[in-house]
Amino acid sequence: QVQLVESGGGLVQPGGSLRLSCAASGFIFSRYAMRWYRQAPGKERGLVAGMLLPGGSRDYVDSVKGRFIISRDNTNNTVYLQMNDLKAEDTAVYYCVAIYGSWAYWGQGTQVTVSS
């Protein structure tokens, strides 16, 4: 049974940091590209960051470049999103996604709220 379980979301003040985690199980984690998506209220879901393999290239949406870092640990089947200098516009539900060819598995999402 495939599972992606996100954690680490919450309420943070502008300029603060959060670290999201996504624990994967039920598939061969090391073979999958991992991505983080987010969806803000009233907006479409969009890609935030992606990473194929540990040490491999990382891709970020322009709005988070220099602030967010995606990483993965194939030993513990976990992908992370370190979010620094958070802004109000980062408020959204964040989803972890595992992709292999045409297959995609989604987590249930974790809420991040940036507010003073």
Largest sheet: 7 strands, mixed
Strand elements, count? 11
Radius of gyration (CA) equals 13 Å
- From the spread of the alpha carbons, the general shape counts as globular
Beta-strand share of residues = over 45%
Whole-Å distance between the termini?
40 Å
Structural class determined from secondary elements: mainly beta
Mean pLDDT across every amino acid position: 95
Uncertain spans: none
Helix/strand order: EEEEEEEEEEE
What portion of residues is helical? under 10%
Counting DSSP H or I runs of 4 or more residues, the number of helices is 0
Q: What does this 3D model show about the protein?
A:
The chain is built from no helices and 11 strands. It has 116 residues and is mainly β. The strands form 2 sheets. Strands 2, 4, 5, 6, 9, 10 and 11 form a 7-stranded mixed beta sheet that branches. A 4-stranded antiparallel beta sheet has the order 1-3-8-7, with no helix packed on it. The model has no long low-confidence stretch (mean pLDDT 95).
